[in-house]
Amino acid sequence: MKRWMLTAIFTMTSVSVFLTSCKGTDADISLVNGTLDAPLPIDSVPAQVMEAIENANRFHCSDIMSDTLNNISVTSIGAVSLGAEETSTEGYGIVITKGSVSTTFPHMRNVRQPQAHYDASTGNLWLTTSAMEGTGVQVECLQQIRFHENDSAYLVHAINPYDVQQALCNRLGYRIDGQQVTLYDQQRMLTTATNTITDMGGFDDECPLWIGEQIQYDLSGNTPHLLITPGVKFTTGLVLTYDDMPTLTAPITIGDDAQTTIGQLEVLK
Q1: What is the pLDDT at residue 10?
Q2: Which of 186, 154, 189 is nearest to 170 (CA)?
Q3: Residue 18: pLDDT above 80?
Q4: Which strand (E) or helix (H) includes residue 52?
Q5: What is the pTM of this model?
Q6: Are strands 172-177 and 30-31 parallel, antiparallel or unpaired?
């Protein structure tokens, strides 16, 4: 059985989670609550790591993406060499190369197997980086990157997980009937899941469904797809359980005005 603590020790930052009263869309459908109580902070590389990256004579990198057709690659920096000495980057550092031009993003985190995908039709390079991780927690940030005329890369926009959570807290609803949990995207029914947990005291009376601990992305196609899994809170302790809950997916886009749009939610097959 997978049971995740709402508060955990995160390798990047400790972000508090909180319990508030649930909101209802109507008399029958209630809206999920969010575990993140504020936008996650922008990545900040430790000073000693920044100094090591700036003064390095060699990067020790691992491949994230290699697009030979468009001559673009993305790698993570695991360590750097300062003369004969090798220094860890402590999970920071991404290098994006187009042609013969490499751009280093020292502040971007490279833990938890980041993904990347280049869409030649739009010129967007999509990159996922871990914003928060811990026992049962995986929260990613989606980065939109493009290239200058000289082939150097630049960050256009980064989608903060808190903004994703808040948008879906206004859409993702549920009904509970006995052990049946039915999920809705606004008024449209998505699926019904059956709870099999019998030793946690039953569903929490006030706020049984939460999102915010499981926010990831699928970059297998040109359009990124959000992956989000709701967690169930029972009456016994501050615990979210994911055993019986489905993962939901939706396309996500960023407009020229930096406006993020989350498309129609579906159940991940």
Answers
A1: 33
A2: 186
A3: no
A4: helix 47-55
A5: 0.89
A6: antiparallel
As given in the structure block, the two tokens for residue 205 are 């009376």
Tell me the two tokens of residue 265. Answer: 């939610």
Which of 9-13, 54-58, 132-136 is least confident? Answer: 9-13
Burial of 27 (0-12, 13-18, 19+ CB in 10 A): exposed
Number of residues assigned to the chain: 269
Within 10 Å of residue 89's Cβ, how many Cβ atoms?
Answer: 24
92 in Cβ contact with 72 (< 8 Å): no
- CA dist., res. 262 & res. 260, Å (int): 7
DSSP secondary structure of 220-268: SSSS-EEEE--EEEBSSSSEEE-TTPPPEEEEEEE-TT--EEE---EE-
* CA count, 13 A, side-chain hemisphere, 215: 28
Q: What is the pLDDT of residues 197-219, one digit of tens each?
A: 989 999 999 999 999 999 999 99
> Which percentage of the chain shows pLDDT scores above 90?
81
Name the DSSP letter for residue 40. Answer: P
Q: Which residues pair with 103 in a beta bridge?
A: 96
DSSP one-letter string for 180-214? EEEEEETTEEEEEEE----SS-SB-SS--EEESSE
| SS3 state at 99 | coil
Token code pair at residue 89: 């980057």
